[in-house]
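Hypothesis: this fold can be encoded by more than one sequence.
Test: take the structure tokens below, design a sequence, compare later.
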């Protein structure tokens, strides 16, 4: 199981309080289904501010409506398992990859974020399927591509078969340089309160 070249991250926390919790699953599903219709076969849901009961109702509804899409949940391996999601994405302060793998088993994806060479090297020793290299505001594309190139060198030397994902602070006109620097996939944060599908179409076209 692999993640798609364009990896949308649906951020439920951008909705804020005006959206009633009862309507939240429908809002998220509508956006997720729109991306699936574009051809995105992998989607991540981030919802750090939602309580477990509300989040569980959202992930279960996403799973029900998108049975053929690879669904990744940010940070909550327990709820990913409960909703039969396909994987979990971990930050540096989350459950360890080993712990996530014990919970999820070998048939699901485990991804982790890495912001520097030390974190990336550590990730290569973990039971993960992909590593996300974050792109900071400071330094722009040049710094991001240097980090990607470093990660690609370490990954190639390790002989691990992982996907290298670039995330954050990337525009459509940066995709080519990011791919040349070593990125296999581009993760794009989606404000689900807006309508970013046209931009997503351009990203998806560039990643093919």
């Amino acid at each position: 199981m692999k993640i798609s070249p364009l990896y949308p991250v649906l951020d439920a926390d951008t909705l804020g309080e005006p959206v009633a919790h009862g309507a939240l699953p429908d809002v998220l599903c509508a956006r997720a289904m729109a991306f699936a219709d574009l051809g995105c076969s992998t989607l991540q849901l981030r919802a750090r501010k939602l309580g477990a009961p509300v989040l569980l109702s959202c992930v279960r509804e996403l799973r029900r409506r998108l049975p053929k899409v690879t669904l990744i949940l940010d940070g909550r391996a327990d709820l990913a398992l409960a909703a039969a999601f396909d994987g979990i994405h971990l930050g540096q302060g989350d459950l360890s990859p080993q712990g996530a793998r014990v919970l999820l088993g070998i048939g699901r994806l485990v991804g982790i974020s890495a912001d520097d060479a030390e974190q990336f090297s550590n990730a290569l020793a973990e039971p993960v399927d992909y590593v996300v290299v974050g792109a900071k505001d400071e330094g722009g594309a040049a710094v991001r591509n240097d980090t990607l190139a470093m990660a690609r060198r370490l990954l190639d030397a390790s002989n691990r078969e992982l996907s290298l994902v670039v995330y954050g602070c990337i525009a459509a006109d940066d995709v080519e340089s990011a791919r040349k620097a070593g990125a296999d996939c581009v993760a794009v944060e989606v404000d689900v309160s807006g309508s970013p599908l046209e931009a997503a179409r351009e990203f998806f076209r560039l990643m093919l």
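The domain at 6-207 is CATH 3.20.20.70 (TIM Barrel). Residues 146 and 181 are 7 Å apart (CA to CA).
Hypothesis status: open.
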